[in-house]
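Example (one chain per record):
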Amino acid sequence: MVKMMARIRLNNGFTLIELMVAMTIIALLLSIVAPRYIHSVSKAEESVLKEDLHLMREALDKYQADTGAYPDTLDDLVNKKYLRKIPVDPVSQSNSTWILIPPSNGAKGAIFDIKSGAQGNAKDGSAYGDW
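Predicted structure:
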């Protein structure tokens, strides 16, 4: 009976070595997964930024085709239902950092093109502001 109790007691938990091996395996897996996760998040932000710029430029063109002038503010695009809302720049995390480009050929309105005001470069090396 005493031997049986001693045997049960010895098998109740994990040894320090077993815990260290498990922690080492977990740390190794995290060191492989974490960089890929960070890369995929920044790649997703860049994709969203490209799509937002495309949609806003398309809305600017439609506004100009319908009214004969470019909008004076981004709110004009929202108020006249060309956009549901002004998108948030996914890189700068703000909807007030957009760079508004006026028309250079004397066309009516204040916004001919739009660019990101986010600082830094994309994964391909191009500046966000050049998109």
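Caption: The chain has a mean pLDDT of 90.
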